[in-house]
Records
---
Amino acid sequence: MTDPDISNTIVYLRPRSVEAIRALYDPRNSDLVWTITPHDPMAGPSNSFALHPRVFRLGFNSEQKQASEGFLVGTGSDSDIFIPNHGDIPDPHPGNFRIHYNFESGALLITAVGRLRIGATVLEYEQSLLLMAGTDVECESPALRYMFEFPDLGQYAADHEAKYRAYVGKLGIPNALYMAASRSEEPLLGGVYKSICELGRGGFGTVHKAVNIMTGALYAIKQIPDKLNTKFREYREKERAIIDQLHHPNILHYHHAFVDGTVLYIVMELAVNDLNAHLQSRGKPGQQISVPLRCIQSIAQQALSAIEYLHNRDITHRDLKHENIMVTKWNPATDLPTIKLADFGLVSFEPEPHSLVGTPGWLAPELSKACTQAKRSKKVPKGFKYTNAVDIWAMGKILKGLLGYVPETITNRGKTVPVPKDAALSLSKRMMSIKPKQRPTASLCLQDSWISAAPNPNGLAASKRRRSSSSSASSAQVNKRVKAKLTSRQE
């Protein structure tokens, strides 16, 4: 197979304001265009892309860089494309990035040096993404936007996937994503999502790991079929109704939902794993899993913060368990995870719900007792109601289970000392009180001395953390919007 002809490939720099246009180039031009042309990298700087057998770069800098370094765009003096700062670009390096071209696979790879937004995906420092034809790259500065246009290399790139992967490995970029440039015969979900693998399966459907073929962003997509069952439809509508309403750093972000045929697809933030599975994966084969108490302390604080957010809005989760607490990342600097609550198909928007739902083994005593009575009499006990204290009981059980990962003793300066778990066990016991009214609220749990001293995975102070998590819409506003959505869909 012959090499593809990319001699006419162009890159557009499209500023989004008149001021930026004046600052960057002659305003008589509609776009600033550089053409990729074959160029000898040893010939020095050029006003066009320099095509190299493995990478291309820009030669706008006085210093000739190594070809493997790609190029930088920004206002910094080390940029290959130097953009004068006229006051409308505050960041000295707004959206610096490197581009690598793999001639063997015909792939373009963008690596962030500054903060970049590519479609719905935000790339942080040194994160990478495979560029597709028509990729729209936005810099942190609102003044700059780059549009990349290049040939659809089709089967050429698909035939060289192994070579591409090897090339990315040589670059040492662990966050690079691969996306076949050829058109797949497998139908795309919603026209843009390609399923990569199945992550899990439950009573209401399956969850897939998927990639947006336009941006390269990874998501989890919940697939809920229409089984013409009232419970299934209620579950579908509840999750769909809250997608735009819940915004909290410890609640899994729901991006959007769409219906394809008789199946509802819910596009969600992709998590690493559920909490229990992730903690177990950190253990060494043949050895007992050991998790520091400070880690469990942080997990409990984050979960309680999300529960407080829900309860302040008259929302009861009703299905809290290890499997519905997801780990989205693990911060190596603090050695702490960021966790998020997930699966809102069983939520209640009433202060005193009465329906008997939940997972056996995770039901609060009052719910478990009512379920037993209902099983005998074939109906819900007359006048039965409960409160959001069922969430507190379930969280108390989660905390108790997590404390089992914490060793009883540790070695400190050559001495074996006991791990102080009494405060955590005491809180868990209070949360699991038989009588609902004796359980502390989520807000009171957060005021507990052990919880309030929890380390934050991102290193934020507790007061700042609490302010950021309580700044969203009020209970009345959220409930009004959610109930309105449910009502309109039922009509």
---
Amino acid sequence: MKGDKDEHFSEVMQVKTACEEWGFFQVLNHGVDLNVLENMEKLAKDFFMLPLHEKQKHPMAPGTVQGYGQAFVFSENQKLDWCNMFALGVEPSCIRNQNSGHRVRLTSVSLGLEGEVFEEMFGEAVQAARMNYYPPCSRPDLVLGLSPHSDGSALTVLQQGKDSTVGLQILKVQTWLPVQPIQNEFVINIGDTLEVLTNGKYKSVEHRAVTHKEKDRLSIVTFYAPSYKIELGPMPELVDEKNPCRYRRYNHGEYNKHYVTNELQGKRTLDFAKIQSNTSN
């Protein structure tokens, strides 16, 4: 029906503008049962409230972001983030929420591509969930909840805990801007993988989490990415004389290994994929 087509076109254009200008957008009326969100939040909070020795029965394996603990720690001299994590892969694939695929299709359509192009390219896509718990911090001026970084995924879906304080910030024109939590909404952001595939048309955005002196904060994150077995590079349709190729082709598994074995330092991990210019004076 015409009304449905107009509504769909408007939705696609909103996604396009958000991806080009921000790399982040918030989604309401997403269709996910609110009871599911509440149960997920309760289970995550219950886990983090367990005694430490119980949580440590599920330690984060070295060189991965799987299990309980602090990720991206590689040095005794490294300043630690004020965040406890519990991360796991979402397996088997049949139990996954299919809304991630819908959002990827919207993204491809907003680029003028066929709706299924990314899903077909991704193969047996990887989906992982991570729960972040930020306790109150007596000196929030000295400690970050999570250091500045961009995500290595294609798309990231964030659920902020009910009654959460403002914690998420994004970097825009060298200024950190707070993302106000809205009850029952999702925050979607572009990851490094989609920046590469779109040849920089859609950019992953640097973001961080800050702490609060009196309130704790919980967030639940789902990462959606291609199979680790495939090779990635800019889509040929998005490369031309005005937009030369900015990224090399690479194995996604190698990039993921590079990402999880380096400290969070803004968007530096994306240097792995960038084509370095050979300019000389």
---
Amino acid sequence: MSAARGERVEEVGPVRGGGSGGDEFRLVWLGRAIWAVLIAGVLAFLVRGADNPPDPLLVPAGDASATTTVELDRPVEVDGEGEAALPVTTLPPAPATTAAQRSSTSSSTPSRSSGSPSGPIDASASTPAPSTEAPSTTVGVERRPLPGFGEVGFRVTSADGRIVDGVALLAADQASRSQGLMEQSDLRGYDAMVFRFSSPTTGRFFMRNTRIPLSIAFFDLYGRFVSAADMEPCPDEVADCPLYAAARPYVHAVEVAQGDLPRLGIGPGSVLSFPSP
């Protein structure tokens, strides 16, 4: 048993211990293999890197040569430039019209009109800087409201920048516009009567059963003066009372005692507005 065990130890011993010649041979081939792997790796890196795109170029901020132009697929739209847009801060130049055009022009009672009242037009922000400012022309005067009519404060900015504030009876529906100042002997302490329409109109006015002579001025959608006329009372027995029309479509008509338009600053180049209370 001891001999057998000793032989087995002898056979295994040389394999584990080995000779010095065998070890050197293995080290040489191991070194060659390592170099071969390194060289192959370097070659592979160079080959793959050559196929990649060039490195990105960083351009300092403000370098105009690196600016990229982007084309839009639709035009840029500017607010307020469309056909339906209305001026907000700037009014177009007021038309030069005479203060007394009557080609069938103006009245105490419109012949045809309908619709709900239009919103107030505030053009004061875009009118010329005033040179003077006048208070209401009826300060201290007792006003007598008229059933079926409202009351509204208004402002006129004349062509030379003068501002006049006033208070008017308001006819803003069909019934009140049809009645107007019929059967009234005065303006009941108000500066004027304002007729308001919901959209631009060409309705004409007449003076049947109106006791006092009146002047009327028309203003367009932007508050600009359109035209004016003096109107005479027309007795009920007259079959065909004269009809008074504006020179072009209007939204507001202002009636005053005949001859009072200049006192309120109303005339060519003036602007009508309704400041918030």
